[in-house]
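Exam revision sheet. Question 4 asks you to relate a sequence to its structure. Input first:
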Amino acid sequence: MGRPDLDRRHFLAAAGGLTVAASFGFAALGTGADALASGADTRVRYWNLFSGGDGSNMIAMLDAFRKAHPGIDVKDSTLQWGNPFYTKLAMAAAGNRAPDLGVMHMGRVTGFAPGRLLDAWDVGLLAKYGVREQDYNPALWRRGVIDGKLYALPLDIHVQLCFYRKDVLRKAGLLGADDRIVPVTSVDDWFGLLKEAKGATKKGLQTIGLWVNDQNFQWWFFVAFYTQLGGTWFSADATEVTFDTDKATQVLEFLRRHVTEGYTDPALGSVGAEQFINGAPFAWEGNWSVPVYSGAKLDYGAIPLPPVFGKQATHAESHSFVLPHQSGRGGATNEAAHQLAAYVVTHAQQWAAGGHIPAYTPTLSTPAYKKLYPQNEYASAMDHQATEPKMWFAGSTGILAQRVGPIVVSSTLGSAKPDVVARRMKGELTTLLAMKNPMDGRTAAQGGTAA
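Answer key, structure tokens:
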């Protein structure tokens, strides 16, 4: 998942009645000496970072593949989410001990030295197994292309959402005739809605959970609203910072206002999910919270983050399949890796049940997907993704979030003024632009990041 920490995810998994589907760790990955499964003549070693509900959904999909393709033995291993996973994957690829197939957040692909630590996909082989570029949102497909080659095959997009309690909003008169939240198109609309919702909220509950103490969430929210304002980050040739401090200040002031006007409580910053379950009218969370709230049988809905600055844009990341570098990649094992990835991508209805939006667009038009709620309420987020810049230091848990996220938090919590924070953010972006990627020793301008 796009989760910021494991402890929180374990809580959510428990709240939704989910179980951890696979063990963590590097020792269980195997050495290649073990025997093939009965009847199999090819093995695919597959590393992923999916635990909790994601893990159980992925295992169900792998089991379906095994049943349909008994000649392919899939040996899957789940490693610890975040930087530990990426470190081990890089070490394995550099040491020629890489698995045949891996998972990676799309935003991390550029920094993983494509061509050295990642091998390119054979798009002809993918097409053989039913996956073609035209089956994808064009912008999402391009995110996986580096120097003209596809290095990341998207499985999904996972987005930040505005969850809302229908029972509370109904009481406040904030649901339309379609039983969904009334439209929000401006900052004034949004704070007017919060004011009305607060009046219908049970005593002791905050109006909205915003994870105001969390550097990842605050960074993700910033990216969404900065994109709504049309903000940019760097020049096309990655030689200049184009970050707009005036637009950044607007976003920071917007986030801060939730605290100053009493709609969110910093003391409750880490219990937004619990507050929502207990009756708080709003929570801004990732779509991975859908199984939790549905499991709690709440009367709720979910939409992309509101377009308060006039343009639809909500933060999005993607899980993608990658081919970790192997000096001898090819043959039946490589084809089986393509076949496995294509199967999971084209059979992602199970994956959608976990809240993620399938990247394979034909899935979105199936009757089964159209019946999923609230997934069908926010599937449009596919078409207005707010993503981090395509730089080696960006992506989930990347250096960019680590450097800039805490600065955003300082503004939201009030320890620094928004305009000062905006200038600090631009300074960090300038520093990062000049840094060399430790994977290949090149700056962003030298890294060949253009799709």
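Marking note for examiners. The first strand starts at residue 42 and ends at 48.
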